[in-house]
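**User:** Once you have settled down, spend some time on the protein underneath, comparing sequence with structure tokens, and judge whether sequence predicts the tokens.
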Amino acid sequence: MRVARATAALLLPALLACIQVVQRPEPEREKVPARIQAETDPELIATQVPGVMATSLDVPDVYYIEERERWYRYAWGQWFVAYSWGGHWFPFPPEQTPPELARFEPTPELKQERKLTREEKLAELERQLREIEAQEARDRGELPAAGAGERDDALERLDRELEELEEP
């Protein structure tokens, strides 16, 4: 009995040392567009396809199909659906894409144009910001009111663009 206990006492630490805890990595989250943040519903503009409306906002590829009472958005090479304005976007299989949207899928040329990487966009924004800062340094705050307003507008626009890039 003592031998069994002694053997168990010696083997137990060795066995515990061999146990590995394996953690599974979190599954990669599916990429979906951020919810559209707007104070009011957008003005809807008729398109060349009856029943499909475009938005008046500066957000590309967002459409509303009246008959289906759904919002659709094309992003990252696929269509997403939202069940309300400002709601969450959900991907769906290409075979479920409403036929009315086929005319709105971006052309290969437009898709290529939109393929600027996040880094390229950030680099361009940084370049624009440096230009504004250089102009401010030259002017030393002695710009006329109109020039200062234009500068402030440009800075605000750049801030908004940077915030959009930081959204998932």
In short: The chain has a mean pLDDT of 77.
